[in-house]
């Protein structure tokens, strides 16, 4: 059975012949990877590859803005908040608890192209009604609360302006700017044909962009929807596309293109009961190993879909060694990686430090961490400086430990990465964490553990971002 992408591509090749002047727009980057594979499979000679973009990259390209990270957005929003909101203001820490909700609201307002003057005016009026009172004077809390709602439009404008000045935007702002820049974009790509493939539900901005390009240029759209669901007038899966077929002017004289109908074809489904999560991962490993031995080519068309993202790590370890080059397209939270506990322990170590120094148990906990054990081990693994320090602390019966005491029992240079006398400021702590990551990386490199190196890379990226934010935003 052909995949939806492959089936659509063959239709396009038959219709267009050459692919070099086409722009493919897909729901995700992952879909783009599979489309490239399908193109290489069905191409017999060397060709110029078409443009293949995810919808987010496509909109970003039209808008001329780059996506700001969620952390950047939060800092920029607080900066705008301090300049626009009058009266008593929250600290950044307090603001961060509700600022993300406000970011989501601003994002939705822009993604759905809502008239900002009307919505903010309406919100102000609703709050005025909610806090109406017969009393002549309102309390200070209510006055400050109402002042915040009255300044919401100014905050929104200042926030968006600040991002745009840096060539950045949140997702909604990028979409709104793309809608404004559509005419210029269509003129610049007038000799190319757009093909939108695999969409279903769309937000208002996406609808406007796709409709405008379909109606004003040489463009087509192929929906990822089985005929069975489209024909069913009450099935939710086909709801949006049925609405588009009735409402879009483009479909008044053009047919709606959906897949022929794979839903009703026979399927081979096997259900296996396995106790405990780790057993599931091991069972999947054995199934993949059997596939590899029996029919190796089947692995390229095999997908493992996890219901619990925490199973990713045990699953990777359960995959047989002979299977390589696997494609992982799901995220894995940093806070669930083994490296996270090291930085949590370091944070805890310095937060709890007092004038006497560090409580000995906090010190030994850090020194017993697997990454620190690896860092402090000698090349032949005969002596571990971390173990020596822990034993000395216990044998000398120290309750509190400071840098001088630690240097007394060990001269290893790695101690300076964990324990230091200098005044603890945020920039100093971040730089120490970066230095620690690089030191551990050298040890991991020697072992050639790719997954551990990826953890280190991501944390290095994270602390670099924090360092840049600390420099740019003094608060």
Structure overview:
This protein is α/β, with parallel strands linked by helices and 475 residues long. It contains 23 helices and eight strands. The strands form three sheets. A four-stranded parallel β-sheet has the order 2-1-5-6, sandwiched between helices. Strand 5 (193-199), helix 11 and strand 6 form a beta-alpha-beta unit.
From the structure above, extract its key features.
23 helices, 475 residues, 8 strands, globular, alpha/beta, 4-stranded parallel β-sheet
Helix content: 55-70%
**End-to-end C-alpha gap:** 58 Å
CA-atom Rg in angstroms: 29 Å
What class do helices, strands and sheet pairing give?
A: alpha/beta
Count of beta strands: 8
Quick gist of this model?
The protein has helices at residues 4-16, 29-41, 55-63, 70-84, 92-111, 116-130, 140-150, 152-165, 171-180, 182-188, 204-216, 227-231, 239-247, 277-294, 312-318, 338-351, 360-367, 370-376, 385-395, 403-409, 415-418, 426-447, 450-472, and strands spanning 22-26, 51-54, 66-67, 168-169, 193-199, 219-223, 358-359, 400-401.
Topology diagram in text:
Layout: H1 4-16, E1 22-26, H2 29-41, E2 51-54, H3 55-63, E3 66-67, H4 70-84, H5 92-111, H6 116-130, H7 140-150, H8 152-165, E4 168-169, H9 171-180, H10 182-188, E5 193-199, H11 204-216, E6 219-223, H12 227-231, H13 239-247, H14 277-294, H15 312-318, H16 338-351, E7 358-359, H17 360-367, H18 370-376, H19 385-395, E8 400-401, H20 403-409, H21 415-418, H22 426-447, H23 450-472
Parallel strand pairs: 1-2, 1-5, 3-4, 5-6
Antiparallel strand pairs: 7-8
């Amino acid at each position: 059975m052909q995949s939806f992408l492959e089936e659509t591509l063959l239709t396009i090749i038959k219709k267009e012949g050459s692919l070099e002047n086409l722009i493919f727009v897909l729901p995700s980057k992952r879909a783009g990877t599979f489309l490239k594979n399908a193109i290489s499979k069905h191409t017999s000679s060397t060709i110029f590859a078409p443009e293949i973009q995810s919808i987010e990259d496509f909109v970003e390209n039209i808008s001329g803005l780059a996506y700001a990270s969620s952390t950047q957005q939060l800092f920029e929003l607080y900066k705008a908040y301090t300049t626009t909101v009058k009266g008593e203001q929250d600290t950044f820490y307090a603001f961060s608890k509700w600022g993300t909700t406000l970011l989501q609201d601003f994002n939705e307002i822009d993604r759905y192209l809502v008239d900002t003057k009307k919505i903010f005016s309406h919100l102000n009026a609703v709050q005025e009604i909610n806090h109406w009172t017969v009393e002549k004077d309102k309390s200070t809390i209510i006055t400050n609360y109402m002042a915040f709602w009255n300044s919401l439009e100014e905050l929104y404008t200042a926030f968006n302006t600040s991002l745009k000045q840096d060539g950045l935007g949140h997702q909604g702002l990028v979409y709104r700017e793309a809608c404004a820049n559509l005419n210029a974009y269509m003129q610049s790509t007038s000799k190319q044909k757009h093909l939108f493939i695999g969409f279903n539900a769309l937000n208002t901005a996406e609808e406007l962009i796709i409709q405008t390009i379909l109606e004003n240029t040489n463009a087509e759209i192929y929906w990822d929807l089985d005929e069975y669901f489209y024909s069913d007038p009450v099935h939710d899966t086909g709801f949006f596309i049925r609405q588009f077929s009735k409402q879009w002017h483009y479909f008044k004289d053009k047919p709606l293109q959906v897949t022929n109908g794979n839903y009703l074809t026979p399927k081979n489904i096997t259900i296996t009961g396995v106790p405990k999560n780790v057993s599931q991962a091991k069972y999947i490993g054995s199934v993949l190993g059997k596939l590899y031995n029996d029919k190796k080519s089947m692995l390229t068309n095999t997908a493992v879909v996890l219901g619990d993202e925490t199973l990713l790590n045990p699953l990777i370890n359960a995959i047989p060694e002979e299977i390589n080059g696997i494609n992982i397209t799901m995220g894995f939270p940093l806070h669930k990686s083994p490296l996270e506990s090291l930085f949590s322990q370091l944070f805890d170590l310095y937060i709890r430090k007092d004038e006497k120094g560090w409580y000995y148990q906090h010190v030994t906990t850090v020194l017993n961490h697997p990454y620190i054990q690896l860092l402090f081990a000698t090349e032949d693994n005969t002596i571990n400086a971390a173990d020596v320090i822990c034993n000395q602390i216990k044998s000398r019966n120290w309750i509190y430990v400071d840098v001088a005491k630690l240097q007394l029992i060990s001269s290893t240079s790695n101690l300076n990465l964990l324990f230091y006398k200098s005044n603890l400021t945020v920039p100093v702590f971040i730089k120490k964490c970066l230095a620690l990551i690089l030191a551990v990386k050298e040890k991991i490199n020697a072992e050639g553990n790719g997954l551990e190196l990826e953890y280190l890379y991501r944390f290095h990226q994270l602390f670099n971002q924090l360092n840049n934010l600390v420099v740019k935003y003094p608060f």
